[in-house]
């Protein structure tokens, strides 16, 4: 089982990227589980027809307990979807919600039951503390990738995440694999991102172009891979999926 964490600043297109990677891997015949680690609980919307699925925290709050069928939703693309969720607004810690979700999935033997070939953690990267660091330091992920653009705050978040990963990596935890550039078409974006990657001492493993089909697919509540499988943008996501799987080189 390959376990991959994808971090990135909020609003960078991380969940869109992860969902398309999940759909691409599922299209290859792999069993894929995507776990959303954001209190907004919208990581898997493009896999589930544009609808939010019940979160682990909401289900536990409402029912006191849960079975796997209450927490895991199989999408039309075949991806098993989980949303950790977050606390009631203004009360509690969002990071603690991720910890609770991970512990519950572990208690219910989710990986043994569904036997995924790949687990993708979609993690908010504005902060790297508490539960948000779980995929890195908790032994849940083996590799970490970061989605970024050439915007200053996005690159700043990527630098923070990389420092955290490298710090935990010294203890035998997840390793940093590189940056995924999700282009915003800002001025000198490639150069800015190249410079940041060099400073972080990592590499850009893929450059995703800005494409209108992404928004068109999302309007249908779908990934590009599902809505427009023969498009050039779907081909980009499929190529990126192969790199994450280690089937092709950067």
Task: Please tell me the overall pLDDT.
Answer: 91
Tell me the count of domains.
1
What kind of sheet is the major sheet? 8 strands, mixed
Order of helices and strands: EHEHHEEHHEHEHEHEHHH
How far apart, in Å, are the first and last alpha carbons?
21 Å
Helix content: 40-55%
CATH class: Alpha Beta
What spatial order of strands do you see in the largest sheet?
Answer: 3-4-2-5-1-6-7-8
Counting H and I runs of at least 4 residues, what is the number of helices? Answer: 11
Q: Report the portion of residues in β strands.
A: 15-25%
Class from helix and strand fractions: alpha/beta
Q: What's the multimeric state?
A: single chain
Shape: globular
Radius of gyration: 17 Å
Query: Which fold name fills CATH's third level, the topology?
Result: Rossmann fold
Strand tally: 8
Low-confidence stretches: none
Gross CATH architecture: 3-Layer(aba) Sandwich
CATH superfamily grouping: P-loop containing nucleotide triphosphate hydrolases
């Amino acid at each position: 089982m390959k376990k991959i964490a994808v971090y990135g600043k909020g609003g960078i297109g991380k969940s869109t990227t992860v969902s398309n990677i999940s759909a691409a891997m599922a299209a290859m015949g792999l069993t894929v589980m995507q776990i959303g680690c954001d209190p907004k609980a919208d990581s898997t919307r493009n896999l589930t027809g544009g609808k939010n699925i019940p979160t682990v925290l909401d289900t536990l709050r409402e029912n006191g307990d849960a079975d796997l069928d209450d927490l895991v939703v199989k999408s039309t693309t075949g991806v098993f979807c989980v949303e950790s969720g977050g606390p009631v607004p203004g009360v509690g810690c969002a990071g603690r919600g991720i910890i609770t979700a991970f512990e519950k999935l572990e208690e219910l033997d989710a990986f043994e039951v569904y036997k995924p070939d790949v687990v993708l953690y979609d993690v908010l990267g504005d902060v790297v503390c508490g539960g948000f660091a779980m995929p890195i330091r908790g032994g849940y992920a083996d590799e970490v990738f970061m989605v970024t653009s050439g915007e200053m705050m996005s690159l700043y978040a990527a630098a923070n995440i990389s420092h955290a990963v490298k710090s935990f990596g010294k203890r035998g935890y997840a390793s940093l694999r590189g940056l995924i550039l999700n282009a915003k078409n800002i001025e000198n974006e490639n150069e800015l991102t190249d410079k940041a990657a060099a400073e972080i001492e990592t590499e850009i493993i893929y450059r995703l172009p800005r494409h209108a089909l992404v928004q068109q697919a999302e309007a249908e509540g779908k990934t590009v891979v599902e809505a427009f499988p023969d498009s050039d943008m779907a081909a980009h996501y499929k190529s990126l999926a192969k790199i994450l799987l280690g089937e092709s080189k950067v």
